[in-house]
Amino acid sequence: MAGESPAKRFILVGLDGVGMESMLHMVEAGYMPNVGRLIERGVHREMWGVLPTLTPPGWTTLVTGAWPGTHQVMDFNIRALGKPLDQTVWGINTRLCKAEYLWNTVERGGREPVLVKYEMSWPPTISRGVQVEGTGPGISNHAQIAGYHLFAVGREEEQAAASTDSAAVDPSALRESQRFEPITLSEVSGTGWNNLPESAREPLEAELVIRPLHRSHHSMSRSGSGVPKSYYALIYATGGEGYDRVRITRSRDGADCLFEQDLRAGEWTGYVRDSFRIGDSDIAGHVRMKCIKLTPDAERFELFVPQIWPLDGFTYPNAVAGELLEHVGPFLQNPGRDALGVIDDDTYFELVEHHLGKLADTAIHLCSTRPDWGGLFTQTHVPDYANHFFMADADAVSGQPAERVERCFQGMARSYAACDRWIGRLCDALLDDHTVICIVADHGGTPTSYPLVEVADVLEQTGFLVYTEDGNGGRVVDWTRTTAAPVGNVNIYVNLKGREPTGIVEPEDYEQVRRDIIHALNGYLEPDAGYCPFVFALRREDAEVANLWGELVGDVVYATLPEFNGAHGPQLPSARLGWGSQHTCFVMAGAGIKEGVHLQQQVRQVDVAPTLAYVTGLPRPRDAEGGVVAEALTDPDWYL
Q: Which residues on neighbouring strands pair with residue 542, listed in sequence order?
């Protein structure tokens, strides 16, 4: 006769981009006391992840228990079979997944799942329970009305970013030349203003144009064109020391205020609901602003508008959005990752705290009001935002000046500390004697010592990839002369005749071309380092050693050393550099879990879903290839 399961429900907490070694470093340094207590009362282990070390395959593997070769969510950009090699399928889409999700296993077990911004979970696949958002990092979402706007006077340069990770690895950041909105201040006299506030100096005005769909991901933004909407900044002086207030209005009327309060430098407004035109629809959303800078002479002025998020359309069922608005307040999906390096660090971390507070409030409300919840899935991308902006220079191994290393390390530390406070709130509210909590990551993050190595550049230098001018001053691939090209992060495809629409390589030459590619990668020396940046280059049929198989896998699969490739991506799941690593974090504590144990046996991402199902008495996820982490359990044979 089966026994009673050790736990009744679980909390799965995702920390994007957190390696176990990095987490322990932050715990030991005192930045993660809540996680430190969970480690003391539970188990932990460096966890083996997937290749490429990326968001889509990592988070999908964790909640299916299946390797990428089985679930087929391989990358952000996945091979489009039968299409030209430069056409890919966008990977943030549950419809691509061929394995059962753990939240659907929870449903099969007769319980309700609760999903709160667990990435790679949209469109929803649940039929009971609730879900809030769940697309991708930063600007990679379907719902936002507009990305951030930074209106600036007297600003000539950007803050320097600390890394240049490619869009293939980090689609959450924008690649645009103008990352703020230059505006001009002018005197209000003769412009038709009414109801001006008392001012010791002539008030100044600037038009603030909000552009719906601005700074949205090209593959995921709403359909239609955004219609610009204007507000006005009215700057005035309350005393003789110069300009010190800004009022935001809907028109040139000082009484037509958008917000209740006028702002001084460093202050935020509250949220205000307004409507924005996209295509043929008016979409309501919430607007909030911060006056980052206002000098007494008004020669420097910066007003920041974070992501404008809608009232609904991002939950399942849709009515849940209204429930959250009533009990939690407006949601914030992106805490300004794409504005890092444009806004100051303090403003960014204010947004991070706000974002994580919303995630905690949402999860606590939904679980507290749904007694039949069996699993909470919640995730934040904040640590990986730090990876892409701060991590490259956060360790002395980067060779950067000490002050830059310190600034970047503090960016990492503040990110981890904020996540720790979020986890602490979840534990205080939801972790009881019948619940198990598991903290995991999709990949880790490492600093960088040398210039980034792009495999496309290597293939071009060795003659496999050939470009031609496109007539507009740019370059496009010349498929009549290209024998191989990269797709996504770790895959190289032969331009094979009969398989590719542009194919030029004869089938009888296929093996020789692959051998030549592998030889070229293995023989390539990075000029600054003087040694090869590639760990391996494998034929497709040999890539199963990296848990990759099937037609979506490249003809050649490669991996790189961490010092050449930024935070993560083509690095092996075991890579380490400085205090960073690609080993993903695994911490488990609560009902049925041993206390204070550093597990000795290997833990893999495919083991997480089967273990959570087993310890809570749920069915085994249908397509899971992993096993139960028996070493973690106080009674591994509880079912007997």
A: none
Is there a domain that residue 637 lies in? no
Are 482 and 535 in the same domain? yes
What does residue 337 show for φ and ψ, rounded to 5 degrees?
A: -55, -40
Q: Are 185 and 254 in contact (CB under 8 A)?
A: no
Q: What pLDDT, in 10s, does the model give residues 141-200?
A: 999 999 999 999 998 765 554 456 777 788 877 777 678 999 999 999 989 999 999 999
- The answer to the question of residue 434 being in a domain is yes
Quick one: which H or E segment has residue 88? strand 88-90
Name the pLDDT band for 579 (thresholds 50, 70, 90): confident
Helices (H) and strands (E) in the chain, counts: 12, 32
Rounded CA separation 174/150 (Å): 14
Q: For residue 554, what is the domain's CATH number?
A: 3.30.1360
Question: What are the angstrom distances between the C-alpha of 534 and each of 294, 447, 531, 549, 581?
Answer: 49, 17, 9, 20, 17
Residue 15 amino acid letter: L
What is the spatial distance between Cα 73 and Cα 65, in angstroms, rounded to a whole number? 13
The reply to whether the predicted model has a pTM over 0.85 is yes
Strand partners of residue 294: 301
> In angstroms, how far is CA 218 from the centroid of its own chain?
16
Q: Are 17 and 443 in contact (CB under 8 A)?
A: yes
Q: Which two tokens stand for residue 195?
A: 């109801």
Residues 6+ apart with CB under 8 A from 518: 537, 538, 539, 556
The span from the CA of 57 to the CA of 489, in Å, is 12
Residue 136 lies in a domain: no
Element (H, E) at 11: strand 9-15
Residue 327 is assigned to a structural domain of this protein: no
- Same domain for 55 and 111? yes
Enter the DSSP assignment of 77. Answer: E
Pair 446, 384: CB distance under 8 Å: no
* Residue range of the domain that includes 196: 143-313
Rounded Cα–Cα distance for residues 65 and 60 (Å) = 8
The total number of structural domains that make up the chain:
3
pLDDT in tens, 288-301: 999 999 999 999 99
**In this structure, are 460 and 444 located in the same domain?**
no
DSSP result, 284-350: EEEE--EEEEE-TTSSSEEEEE--BEESSSSEESTHHHHHHHHHT----S--SGGGBTTB-HHHHHH
Extract the tokens encoding 48: 């083996």
524, 539, 565: which is the final residue of a domain? 565
Transcribe 455-494 into DSSP letters.
Answer: HHHHHHHTTSS-EEE-SSS-EEE-TTT-SEEEETTTEEEE
Last residue of a domain, one of 537, 565, 593: 565
Concatenating the DSSP letter of every residue in 522-534 gives HH---TTT-S--E
Q: What CATH number did the domain enclosing 419 receive? A: 3.40.720.10
What gap in Å lies between CA 573 and CA 587, rounded to an integer? 17
Query: How many other β-carbons are positioned within 10 Å of the β-carbon of residue 470?
Result: 10
When pLDDT is cut at 50, 70 and 90, the band that residue 2 belongs to is low
